[in-house]
Structures are given as structure tokens and as C-alpha cells.
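Memo to structure team: turn this sequence into C-alpha cells by end of day. - J.P.
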Amino acid sequence: MIRLIYLGILLLIISGAWFFLKENSSQPVIEDPFKVYVMEESCRQIAQSLPDPLVPGLLCLLPLSGDSYSLITQQLIREIENSGKYKCISLSDIQSALEEKKINLRNQEDLENLAKDFQADLLASGKVVRFSKSEELSELMIKISVWSLNRKDFILPEKIFSGSLKKEFSLPYYRAWMASQPTTGKLLLWLLLTGLGPLLLSTPLSKALDQESNQVNFLLLLGTCSASFFLALALVGFQISDFLTGFIVTIALLWAILSHYVVLSWLEYIRK
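Reply from structure team:
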């Protein structure tokens, strides 16, 4: 009976996670793992190259030329904001303003006035020079410049940033490949393995509990939770790159501790 209740709770969690992520997931996805890596690497280089302001400023990043679906532009916005140096104006707000005011992207004065309307400190613009993939190499090259509206000068003169990844197994490739996998699928896989693992191993776990040792019980709980934690880290590419990822991994660990404690307590109960 307890096992049925546990399985029912597990199915409810899986169903809830499925519908929540299906309705709320809006992050663009590039399926090619090589392109995911080079996009993140190039955008991270740009974010790191920006000077540290005395206080976090506001940056107006125009849609990158040659970025058809704005995936690279949105990734660059995330990297800049994650750096903590600048907040970025919403890309949708900028695109709406460009269409409404019919601004010529080649007119520097009009672009500066647009940035001033948003009370931005910096105006960034650029283009995708190359975003290619061959059998052996994937590469992204972005040309970008950043203009200071206060200083009336470039704080980042026009410069090309590039990221590349060879087609060979490595930790960067694994991280990129894992990042390209659907978040819903990874979450469901973790919940399934974490929830059903102790039940599938109930026979050897029961034999270990026969020793009636608190030390053995502690080691069993530690072992099963460590396995769940390792699986969670593997599914995020062994890299906690932002607060949300860290929060999810922490909640996953707490849930694993609770669920595994319940299962081991139940196995101890039915053994008696």
C-alpha cells in the first residue's frame, strides 16, 4: 500500500513538472550541440570584455545583423546580465520601437536617440560574421562595438569575437550536448531514476538493513542520495552556471534525501 502511495506521488510530481515546463518554457533552443557551445562561448567573451562600471548600468543591445531568429542576440543579453555589469533593455521592446519609429539602423544619431529614450548608458550593435559547421569544426564569429552615450566615445571599438569547437569528445562538447537536450526530458529522467531506483534495489537494500546498524543505514542513505546528486550534476553538464540551475540542483538533492529516507524507512518497517 505504501509503495502504491509513493508511486502515486511520484507520478503526480512528474505530471506537474511536465505541464509546468510545457506551458512556461520560452527559452529558444538550438538543437545542434556544437552551435550551442560556440554561441555561448562567443557571447561570454563579449560580456567579459565589457568594462566594469562603478554601478550596474543599462545597455541597449540592437538586434545583431544576420541573426535571423535573434537566438544569438538573446544569448548575448543573458551573458551580459549574468555578468552583473549591466542590465539589458528587453529585446522585444527594442524591436517594437525600431518598427514603430521606422529607425534606419545605419543612422547613428537615430540609434543614439532610441537608446536615450530608454535611458540607456550604452548602445551596442553588431553583426554575425559567420556561424558555420563542418564535419570537424563549428565556429561563430560576431563583430560588435559598444558606444557610451555619456562619454560620446566607444568603450569597446569594433572587434570580432569568436568561439569554436572541434568534433571530438570533451567536457565542453558534453556540456553543449547536454544543454541542447529538452529540459523537460532531463527532469523527467531524473525524477524517474531517483524515484524508482531505491524501489528497484529493494532486495539488496533490505539485506543491508538486516545488519541493524545505524552506521550502515546512514551509509545507505548517503550512497543513494549521492547517486541522485551525481545524476543531477551529469544532467546539467557538471556545471552550475547560474542561480536557477543551482537552485534546481539543491531542491533535487533535498527531494532525494527525503524520498530515499522514506523508502529506506519503509523497507526497515516491512522487514520487521
